[in-house]
Amino acid sequence: MTPASPSLGSEQSPSSPRTEVPVSSNPLAPAWLRVPVEPNALDASVWSRTAGRDDSGEIVIGGVSARDLASRHGTPLYVVDEADARGRAAEAVESFRREFGRIGTTVSVYYAAKAFLSVEVARWVSAAGMRIDICTGGEFAVARAAGVEAARMGFHGNNKSLGEIDRTVGEGIGVIVLDNADEVARVADAADRHGVVQAVRLRVNSGVHASTHEYLATAREDQKFGVPLADAAGVVAAVRDRSSLRFLGLHSHIGSQIFGSDGFAEAASRLLAVHADLLRDGDVPELNLGGGFGIAYTSADDSRPIAELAAALADIVDEECRRLGIPVPVMAVEPGRSIIGPSGTTLYEVGTIKDVLVTSDDGASQAVRRYVSVDGGMSDNARTALYGADYSVSIANRASSADPVLVRVAGKHCESGDLVVLADYLPGDVAPGDLVGVPATGAYCWSLASNYNHVGRPPVVAVVDGQSRVIVRGETEADLLARDAGLS
Ligand SMILES: Cc1ncc(COP(=O)(O)O)c(C=O)c1O
Question: 256: closest CA among 341, 138, 166?
């Protein structure tokens, strides 16, 4: 972490392995960051699949150049590589179906809408065969507007309102994931009112919490989501007592931006032990292992293809079920970030630039950090300020042969923690008016966007086959004023 980084939130940072040997010429650079050997190259593990540079050196995504995108739609701009997103959705469905098919079961692959949801994206993931995991009435409304049947959705959340429960049950939601004991009666009563039998899962808190490269396993985890594993049997008994509920099985989500399968293995093993106990008193046809599969935000991140993870999860479940002597349940998973995150790039225009001479903590050395300020910031990407998340940046409107310099990409908001990229190298001739692209911003950026300082949230454009089209309109000052009741 860089010295001035904001405090960490629930999503831990740094997101990158820190085992690399430092090859940095600037002592302010984090140990994992390498001076780029080929500064104009776009790392294929970080950038979306159709991103590249054209003959003039400009970045092109989906066949549309950065300058075309900026002149047509303005900056800041969220750009979604449609072919990339659709491809990842299809690969997730195929991989999980193939791998769980191999161990003799089936799987539902839900798209976690919280990562990013719009009508278009709901249609893309549905066309790829995904179901949709929603956690509010608003997400439900967007998915329904996209034509997704309620029966193909799952509903999460630790504090679903009575109105949300009633509406989703009434419209035939596929499954509700109960998060606590209070929700048993709330969902059962809604099902009674509507004269239906509602399928439910129970979110348990496995005590396994994974983030990035490590996982923690404790007896009980101190967090708001889910019922402690030790209490699961009592809650499931209450579910089984209500004839308007049908218990499908346990659910766990162990965290986000997870690399590797060790945390999932531990959680699956803990869940299946309870699952096996629950089988003594009734059906437990399914098991949901949640989402959280990590993506590369920087070249130091080692994200694995979803197919590898699917194979690992299938092996874990197969092995554990054999050991317990129980049938392999029908499975469910809920990836969000790994579907839409790598597809997104945010384009910004550079505004001001300043160099700061920074003295090391021991006073022994000094080095320059260059602040490159752009026309967006924490209002369009809160993850850096919230979690200390790492991102990468490249000059987008041209290539450059200038020597790379260490930069920090700052936003335009009234917070010193308003940073988009904590540390990366840009060509030393980066100048006001240049465009820069920050890759891997497809997930949890637009979803977490705000109107801080009365900026409008930027538009989202999909690019494919040389065309760009707005899939979410940007907000205007008129939009902001329209909600200000002082005017009426
Ligand atoms: C219950 C649940 N499922 C799935 C997800 C999606 O996680 P990710 O986007 O990291 O795959 C989340 C994210 O917070 C979640 O809380």
Answer: 341
Q: Tally Cβ neighbours within 10 Å of residue 141.
A: 12
Residue 113 CA, ligand 1 centroid: distance in Å: 9
pLDDT, averaged across the chain: 93
pLDDT digits (tens, 9 = 90+) for 89-124: 999 999 999 999 999 999 999 999 999 999 999 999
> Measuring from atom 8 of ligand 1, which residue has the nearest CA?
292
Cα–Cα–Cα angle for 345, 138, 338, rounded to 5 degrees: 35
162 CA → ligand 1 middle, Å: 23
Please state the φ and ψ torsions of residue 95, each to the nearest 5 degrees: -65, -50
pTM of the model: 0.94
Question: What CATH number is associated with residue 320?
Answer: 3.20.20.10
177, 253, 338, 340: residue to mutate for ligand 1 pocket, most atoms within 8 A of CB: 253
What is the spatial distance between Cα 451 and Cα 135, in angstroms, rounded to a whole number?
22
Residue 25 CA, chain-centre distance (Å), reads 32
Give the number of residues written for the chain.
488
Q: Are 369 and 424 in contact (CB under 8 A)?
A: no
Domain boundary pick from 310, 335, 360:
335
| pLDDT mean over 424-446 | 97
Are 254 and 300 in the same domain?
yes
Active-site residue list: 414
Indicate if ligand 1 lies below 6 Å from the C-beta of 157. Answer: no
φ/ψ of 275, rounded to 5, equals: -55, -45
In this structure, the dihedral spanned by the alpha carbons of residues 157, 163, 164 and 166, taken in order and rounded to 10 degrees, is 110
396, 58 contact by CB (below 8 A): yes
Q: How far apart are the first and last CA of the chain?
A: 48
**For the chain, what is the total number of helices (H) and then of strands (E)?**
12, 23
CATH code, 412: 2.40.37.10
Which CA distances in Å does 459 have to 225, 298, 350, 428, 465?
Answer: 32, 24, 18, 30, 19
